[in-house]
């Protein structure tokens, strides 16, 4: 599989962002990287012209990208990624695919995963505010990643609707 970087992916490339429900230790991060290598191997067999890249950020996030200008991802390719990541989740005892958890950076700079209800409560209590950085695991295209939309202040994120009203 042609390996690429996020900077080299062409516009319109697909991006997935997955967040672990806790910081992964170095051994788990190595296991995470091994799971990603398995995904790359499967992708290479199924769609050899698919340019892809993966990155572990902050010991807690997996960002994956694929160049869809040369070949469109098929369902089996995405299923392969989710299958290997599911195996990693079970082996490491972490969750990666919970889209209902909000990840934010606390005042000490640590990443905190909380339920949406807890996020609202933290906002109401003044523990977090409009300047609090939040992570958007719903990004879908490389342009969003490059524009810095993965981590941005709460006031500039769709997360603001969770605490409004």
Summary, kept brief:
The chain has 165 residues and is an alpha+beta fold. Helices cover 35% and strands 21% of the residues. Helix 1 packs antiparallel against helix 2.
Residue fraction in strands? 15-25%
Report the top-level CATH class of the largest domain: Alpha Beta
**Total beta strands:** 7
Q: Largest beta sheet, briefly?
A: 4 strands, antiparallel
Uncertain segments are none
Task: Write the CATH architecture name of the largest domain.
Answer: 2-Layer Sandwich
Q: How many domains would you count in the coordinates?
A: 2
Q: What is the mean pLDDT? A: 86
What gross morphology would you assign? Answer: globular
Please report the number of helical segments.
5
The structural class is alpha+beta
Question: What would you note in describing this structure?
Answer:
- This protein has two domains: 14-92, Alpha-Beta Plaits (2-Layer Sandwich), CATH 3.30.70; 101-135 and 148-163, Dna Ligase, domain 1 (2-Layer Sandwich).
- By secondary structure, the chain is α+β, with helices and mostly antiparallel strands.
- Strands 5-4-6-7 form a four-stranded antiparallel β-sheet.
- It has helices at residues 26-46, 75-92, 116-124, 142-146, 160-163; strands spanning 14-19, 52-57, 61-66, 101-105, 111-115, 133-135, 151-153.
- The mean pLDDT is 86.
- 35% of the residues lie in helices and 21% in strands.
- It has five helices and seven strands.
- α1 packs antiparallel against α2 (75-92).
- The longest helix has 21 residues, at 26-46.
């Amino acid at each position: 599989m042609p390996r690429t970087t996020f900077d080299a992916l062409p516009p319109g490339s697909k991006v997935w962002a997955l967040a672990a429900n806790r910081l992964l230790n170095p051994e788990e991060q190595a296991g995470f990287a091994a799971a990603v290598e398995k995904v790359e191997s499967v992708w290479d067999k199924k769609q050899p012209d698919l340019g892809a890249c993966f990155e572990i950020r902050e010991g807690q996030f997996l960002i994956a990208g694929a160049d869809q200008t040369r070949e469109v991802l098929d369902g089996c390719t995405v299923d392969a990624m989710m299958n290997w990541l599911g195996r990693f989740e079970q082996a490491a005892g972490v969750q990666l695919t919970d889209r209902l958890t909000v990840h934010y950076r606390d005042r000490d700079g640590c990443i905190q995963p909380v339920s949406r209800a807890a996020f609202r409560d933290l906002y109401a209590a003044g523990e977090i505010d409009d300047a609090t950085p939040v992570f958007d695991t719903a990004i879908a295209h490389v342009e969003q990643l490059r524009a810095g939309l993965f981590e941005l202040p709460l006031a500039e994120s769709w997360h603001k609707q969770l605490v409004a009203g």
